[in-house]
């Protein structure tokens, strides 16, 4: 999860363009790779790798402070949505204990940057996003 978002962000930082192809049709088979067949149904708890991937994407690209702030705001928004559904008498859908797990595994988790070997770099070995003054970035 989040690898394609990271891929597009790294491309943008390199100056690559993203194009929209209106005629393209893509089918996403939800849960095909993970066995979580229907995100609307209760399927037990969200797998740990989802939380790790979410956290890794934000920490790698934006730093620990931004990650924690974004996670806290996401948690607040999700909790508000759950409260609204309950007040309206509607079923709360999604993974069991998702809010609690998101809080524990993302909001209050210890954030560490990814290892240097896993950071994206250009074919020349320069880290993506490096400035021209330090020898990196776009030419």
Rounded to the nearest angstrom, the distance between the terminal CA atoms is 31 Å
What is the overall shape? globular
Which regions are unreliable across 5 or more consecutive residues at pLDDT < 50? Answer: 129-139
Radius of gyration: 18 Å
Mean pLDDT: 80
How many beta-strand segments?
0
The main β sheet shows up as: none
Assess the beta-strand content as a share of residues: under 5%
Question: What does this protein look like?
Answer:
The structure is a single chain. The chain is 43% helix and 0% strand. With 139 residues, the chain is mainly alpha-helical. It has a domain at 40-110. Helix 3 (64-87) runs antiparallel to helix 4 (98-107). It is globular and about 45 Å long. It starts with a helix and ends in a 32-residue tail after the last helix.
What descriptive keywords fit this protein?
139 residues; mainly alpha; 0% strand
Task: Give the topology, please.
Elements: H1 3-13, H2 48-62, H3 64-87, H4 98-107
Helix pairs in contact: 2-3, 2-4, 3-4
Short characterization:
By secondary structure, this protein is mainly alpha-helical.
């Amino acid at each position: 999860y989040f690898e394609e978002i990271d891929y597009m962000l790294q491309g943008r930082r390199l100056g690559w363009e993203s194009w929209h192809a209106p005629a393209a049709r893509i089918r996403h088979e939800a849960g095909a790779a993970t066995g979580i067949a229907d995100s609307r149904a209760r399927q037990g708890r969200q797998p740990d790798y989802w939380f790790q991937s979410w956290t890794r994407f934000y920490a790698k690209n934006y730093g620990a402070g931004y990650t924690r702030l974004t996670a806290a705001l996401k948690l607040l928004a999700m909790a508000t949505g759950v409260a609204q559904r309950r007040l309206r008498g509607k079923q709360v859908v999604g993974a069991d204990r998702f809010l609690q797990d998101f809080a524990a595994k993302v909001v209050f988790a210890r954030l560490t940057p990814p290892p240097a070997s896993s950071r994206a770099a250009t074919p020349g070995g320069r880290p993506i996003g490096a400035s021209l003054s330090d020898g990196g970035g776009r030419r």
